[in-house]
Amino acid sequence: MAVVGPNGSGKSTLLMTLLMLYRPTKGRIEYTDSDQRLEESRLRSLTSFVSPYLNLYDQLTAEENLKFFATVAGGSVTGKQIDHLLAKVGLQGRGCDLVAEYSSGMKQRLKYAVALLKSPAFLFLDEPGANLDEEGKQLVAGIIEEYRSHCIIIIATNDREESSLAEKQLRLGQ
Amino acid sequence: MPKSSSGLVSKSLAVFAKDVHLELRTRYALNAILMFAVTTLAAVSFSVGQSGLPPKLLAALFWIVMLFSAMSGLAQAFIREEEVGTALTLKLMSDPDPVYIGKLLFNFSLLTVMAALITPIFFIFTDAPASGIATFILVLALGVIGLCSATTLVAAIIAKASVKGALFAVLSFPILMPLLLVLVSATEKVLDGGAIGDIATEIQFLVAYGVVMVTGSVLLFKFVWQE
């Protein structure tokens, strides 16, 4: 599903609220599995988010970032899996570089690698193509295509091309 | 990502190791703490020198140096996460408990290193009596635990505020005051030649303070972190 609307209409806020990062001022949000309410830590393990608001550790390398986030998320990654993830987002051979040395587009690609560390049931993408070149945007389209069969993907965007990837649209601010 | 058997301990150690790694690369908190400690100790040494200060004054001076050095560096653990925008990523990837325990371990290590550097310099500069050094180290260790547990939670509270420095001092003051009074009292007795039996009440308080603060802050942290 794509969430579209003009600047300031609340697209990012809606995503953050769905991710339980913001508390709704009215109503409540619940995720259920077979009528059982999902606990927050379980929900955390099932959701991934890519956004310009998220940052990674600049003074760590890409590999160190991936290893750290995999461990705190309750899993582990091998060197081979890291290489695979980095190749998937077009950063092969750059795993040992400090993130501080990355361009904004490369950082955005690395955020996708971090998001895909989990096997998300919900993938939230806020301005998925932000800072990405044409090849990067193709890569994101490929990831959306790969995950849409087994994952609920919610995209907040103003880009027509990105919103056209969604089956449904939610228009805000009108 | 394959699930590992890693529980709270390995997640907390990952946060701790990450903070150590970042600190060694940036020297953000270490430089702040060391510069404050060195300048304060130098000022104390130049102003009072080896003039045989009474134990009460020596004890107060020592803990003032420790307190302000700690306050200049310990808050960085959470402030840095907020300032560079990694707090949000951490919230999405990790449960709150490992974050707090990892940060607490990091602050404890930082303050232990600081205490190991400050204490010998303090004894040399002020010519304080070093006869009861083992008891002094016990009081110091309990003081470090108390300072860390109290300031780490306050650091998490103030990390999102715009006036961090002032808020940190204001919120820390009532929590740290009883701890400081007891630490000064215990240190005074030790410097005055008192044995461990003479400070039994103070040690009981310091142990209780450490246990209550660590337990309380672990229980409260998730509410602070999720707000």
**Major pleated sheet of chain B:** none
- End-to-end Cα distance of chain A: 18 Å
Low-confidence stretches of chain B: none
The appropriate CATH architecture of chain A is: 3-Layer(aba) Sandwich
Distance between the termini of chain B: 29 Å
Per CATH, the superfamily of chain A is P-loop containing nucleotide triphosphate hydrolases
Shape, principal axes of CA atoms of chain B: globular
The string of secondary-structure elements of chain A, in order, is EHEEHEHHHEHEHE
Portion in strands of chain A: 5-15%
Overall shape of chain A: it is globular
Mean pLDDT of chain A: 89
The number of strands of chain A is 7
| Percent of residues in β-strands of chain B | under 5%
Class from secondary-structure proportions of chain A: alpha/beta
Please state the CA-atom Rg of chain B, rounded to the nearest Å.
18 Å
Write a structural description.
The complex is a heterodimer of chains A (174) and B (227). By secondary structure, chain A is α/β, with parallel strands linked by helices. Chain A has a single domain (2-23, 36-171), classed as Rossmann fold. Chain A has 7 helices and 7 strands. Chain A has helices at 11-18, 40-46, 62-72, 79-88, 104-115, 134-147, 160-163, and strands at residues 2-4, 32-33, 36-37, 47-50, 122-126, 152-156, 169-171. In chain A, strand 5 (122-126), helix 6 (134-147) and strand 6 (152-156) form a beta-alpha-beta unit. The longest helix of chain A has 14 residues, at 134-147. The mean pLDDT of chain A is 89. Chain B is mainly α and 227 residues long. Chain B has one domain. Helix content of chain B is 82%, strand content 0%. Chain B has 9 helices and no strands. Chain B starts with 7 loop residues before the first helix and ends with a helix. The chains are: A alpha/beta (174), B mainly alpha (227). The A-B interface holds A 19, 21, 41, 44, 47-49, 53-60, 64, 68-77, 81, 114, 117-119 and B 1-4, 6, 10-11, 14-15, 18, 21-22, 25-26, 84-86, 88-95, 98-99.
